[in-house]
Specification:
Elements lengths: L2 H10 L6 H7 L11 H22 L5 H11 L2 H11 L9 H5 L6 H19 L1 H18 L9 H11 L6 E8 L6 E8 L4 E7 L2 H19 L9
Antiparallel strand pairs: 1-2, 2-3
Length: 234
Amino acid sequence: MDDALVALQQRLGHVFADPALLERALTHRSFGAAHNERLEFLGDAVLSLAISAMLYERFGGSDEGDLTRVRAHLVREDSLHRAALALGLPAVLRLSEGEARGGGAGRPSILADAMEALIGAVFRDAGFDAAERVVAGLFGEVIAATDVGAWRKDAKTELQEWLQARRLPVPGYRIVATRGQAHAQTFEVECAVAMLGLAERGEGRSRRAAEQQAARRMLDALLASDLPGSPLRS
C-alpha cells in the first residue's frame, strides 16, 4: 500500500482489513465509476449516530433541542472540512486531472464528503464500534471542551440563517394575544414558516422576548426533523 495511505490510517486510528474500502472512500466521482458517494451516504448516518451518542453522555443535563443544535454544528460542512484537513486528506484524494487542476483537493465540499465517506468505510470495514472510535478521535476534544450555551445564537438570527441555507423564505411573526395591564403585559407571538406549513408560539414580557421564544421553538422543531431521509435535510 502507498506510504501516504499507511500514514493516513495511523492518523485515523484505524487500519483497514479491506484496503479497497479506503481507496473508494478517497475517490471523487470525477475519477471514475467506483467513487465514494454511497460510502458518503452511509458515513453521514454513522457520524450522526456517533456524535449523538457522545453528546448524550457529555451533556446529561441538556434537553433535546440543545443536543440537536450542537450536533448540527459538528456535522456541518465546515467542521468536516477542518477534520479532513487535520487528517491530510487533500494529499490522498483521487480526482480527475481536470478536477485536480481546478483545486478540487482543497474544496471544502469535496473534503467534507470524503470525510463522511471515510467514516462510512470504517463502519463497513469493522463495524460501528470502530467507526465510533474514529469519530471520537476526530471530535472528542471539541465535545469535551465545549459548552452548550456557546453554540447558541440569538434564536431569530439562527432560525433565519437555517432557513436561508435551505433557500426557504424567512419566517413571519405576529402577535396573537396580549394579557395583563399596560405596565405588566404578557405577549403571545406566533412564528410561522408558511412554505412548510409550520407555526410555533412563544410568550414573553415584551414582543421581542415572545418572538425569541417562538423562534427557538420553531428552530428546535425544524432541527428535530433535519434527519437523514427528511425532506428538510440539506
